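pasting for ref
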Amino acid sequence: MNVFFVNDTTTSSNWGCRGTTRALRRMVDDAGGDIAHTLQLERMDDPRRLGEAVTEPGAFPARLSKFAFQQADVRPKALRALRALPSSDRRGAYKRYKSLVGRWDELPVTFEEYPDAADAVERGDRFEFERDAIEACDVVLINGEGSIYDRQRKGRMMFFLAYLATQRYDTPCLLVNHTADLHDPVMRELAENVYPMLEDVVFREPYSARAAEPFLPGSVEDAMGADAAFTYDPVADREQWASVVGREGYFDVWPDSASGFDPSEPYVCVGGSSIFNRPDRPAYDPEPAFEELCARLEAEIAPVVLTASCSSDAELFRPIAERHGYPLIGPHTPVRQAIDVLSQAELYISGRWHPSIYALVGGTPIVTLTANTHKTMGLIEQVGLDAPTFDALELHEHVESIVELAGSYAEDGEDRREELAERSRELADVAWRNVRYFE
C-alpha cells in the first residue's frame, strides 16, 4: 500500500520532532505500508509559498518583509524588537503583521474557502507536488504531532490536504499521532468539518480527544492512542552505558559542552518550554527563575544537567550554563543519546512533550510546565501522575513547589520508576493504533 506521509519532521533540529517521525515511519513500514511520497514540515510551514497574487498592487512589500522575517540573521532581531514592546502593543503588531502577509498565501484559511482552493489545485494552479503525491498513493497519512493549534499554517495545511484527498481524489486519509488544541475558532471550524471525512483519527493524549468528541468519526475511546515516541527502549544496562558515555567530551556537540557530566551518579535534567519566546504569547523572561530552580535542585536533589532539545532552549540555557558551569546537552545531540540521558535521570523538569516521553520510557519521573498547547497536562493525565502542570510564564512563583514535588519523587525511588516504566510500556502498545489502518 503506497503511502503519502505528510509532515515529516526528521530534518528538524528538535529532538522530539526527529524522534517521533522516525518512530512513526518505522511503524508504518512494520505494519505493511510503503512510504512512497513525503511532505516535509519545512514545506508545510513555509509562508513564502505565495501564489501569483504577489503581482497585485501592494503585495510585493508584504512578501518581501515575510521573506526577510524568515532569514536566520534577521528573524532573531525582529523577534527581539517585538518582545521589547509592551505586551498589548506586541500582540497587536504581530496580529497585524500576520493578517497582512496571510492575504497572499496560497493556502486557504477558512473552510468556506476550501472549494475554490481545491478547484485551483485541480487546475494545476497551486500545490502541484501535493496533488501529484495524493494521486500516486493509496492512502494519505498525516503525522499531526503538535501542529494543530492557534491558526498555525502547518495545522491548516493538514486539514486542507485531508479535504483535498478525501473530497477531490477519493483517497483515504488518516490523521494520527497528534494533539489538537481547538481554542481558535477558525481551527475549530476546520476540525468540525474535516474530522468526519477522515478514515481514521488517532490522538496522542486525552485532552485533545475530548475536545474533538462532537465531530469525531467514531468514539473518543476509539480515537485515543499514544505518541509513537513511547516505542523507544531505554538503556538496558545502566552501568555499562555510564562507562561508555562518561568519557570526557562524549556529549559535547559544538557549540555546547556537557563537561562535568557524570552519568554514573544521580542527576536531574532540566529543559525549557515551547511557550517561551513566542511573539503570540505574553512576554516573560524565564532565565532568572531557571537559575533559582537549578540552584535549589542541585543543592537539595542532585547535580543538574541542562537539556536543550531545540534551538530556543539552547538560546535560553547557554548563558546559564556558562555562568554556573552546568553541563549542557544541545539540540544537535542524536536522538538516541538524548533518550538515554533522559531515561536514566532521577527526574526531568520541562514543558517539552517528547523529551518528557523519552524520560518516561526509562521510568524517570517528570515535572511538567505549561507548553504552547494543553499537551503537557494531557501527558500527566495519560501516565497517571497526580501532580500539577506549573505555569511556565509564572515559573518564578512555582520554584518552591517544583522542588518539593521533585523531592517527593526522589523519595519514591525505584517503586515510582518501575510504575512509570510499566505505564510507558503499556502506552507503547497503544501507540500502534496510529498504524492500525494498515493491519
